[in-house]
Amino acid sequence: MSPVPSLRPDLVTLAGYHSPQVEVAVRLNTNESPFPPPESWREDIGAALERVEFNRYPDRQVTELRARLAESYGVDAGELFCANGSDEILQCLLLAYGGPGRRAVVFEPSYKLHSQIARVTGTEVVVVERAPDFTIDADVAAAVLKEAQPSIVFLCSPNNPTGRAEPDELVRRVVEAAPGLVIVDEAYGQFSPRSALHLRDDPGLDTTGLVVVRTFSKTWAMAAARLGYLIADPEVVAGCEAVVLPYHLSAPTQLEGILALKYRAEMEARVAVVAEERGRVAAALAALPVDTWPSDANFILFRPQGRGAKEVWQSLLDRGVLIRDCSGWDRLDGCLRVTIGTPKENDLFLRALEESLATGADRPG
Q1: Residue extents of the structural domains in the chain
Q2: Could you tell me if 281 and 300 are in contact, meaning their C-beta atoms sit under 8 angstroms apart?
Q3: What is the b/e burial string over 44-67, where b = at least 16 CB atoms within 10 angstroms of the residue's CB?
Q4: Which ranges constitute the DSSP H helices of 178-302?
Q5: What are 46-84's pLDDT values in tens digits?
Q6: For the structural domain made of 9-37+265-362, what CATH number should be given?
Q7: What is the pTM for the complete model shown?
Q8: What CATH number should be reported for the domain whose range is 39-262?
């Protein structure tokens, strides 16, 4: 029997990306939409699936979904690429434009899979530290890009897990300074008042390498469908098509995306509710002994004062509320992240947090 070959040396210390899946009454740890898709969307899907020829491969070019998305954004279908969640989009970009001998720049703390997928594809990762308030210094960024000459630069806007959207001027400076692609991950973009997409209309800025990545998982309430897309120059789209597996996007997934676009008004109404609840939760946190950071996304990062994050996380779990423990992540010592849920879920979280912090305060020091 042949032995299993050893893992690639550069992957030995790499751990998979995951979050705890625990059965609780209130699950606010993975930034999912707290609301299901419209019931009529489910009915549309059921009827459409009856017409799917399951013995045939799906449309490899994802023609109709790309056309519908292009129409909604006012771009050409050739500027769109769709895949299984935005993570597969990122993987295709790194397979096409990263790899051995190439570099990707990330601004930490940020979405872990940017550096994780880069390393999996053999791309060297250059880490730039954010300021203590989690902002990016544009001058520092420009200097690093000049020295490192990366093939890829990642910006997450709004940034996960810190929550703030990157200022337009910062994105512009990075696009001007970057020698390769600038991938702006807007997984939470619909919750934010600004997007990098408008930069593509600026005649004074060369945006050939600007790539905006979005997903149906959050605002469209379709995390189970695993559907993401990018908007970029057709040359970038062609690069992704060259490395993606054939027939990668199933016929049901394509249909789910096509039919979801019929319900833009419902999606925007859900986004408005979440944004309103985000403001309410932020105001409530401001009255508690925790440090918080501004958020343009559907989650809030906070740090309990005078009590360990893991202890607070466990105390919340004991009360049936699951949030994300970020305290073990680099540069996020003592931090927790809560997804904005329904008004009822948010009330339960705030009550549980208040009780947890009060219990800690009552303990003898």
Answers
A1: 9-37+265-362, 39-262
A2: yes
A3: bbeebeeeeeeeeebeeebeebbe
A4: 234-243, 251-260, 264-286
A5: 999 999 999 999 999 999 999 999 999 999 999 999 999
A6: 3.90.1150.10
A7: 0.94
A8: 3.40.640.10
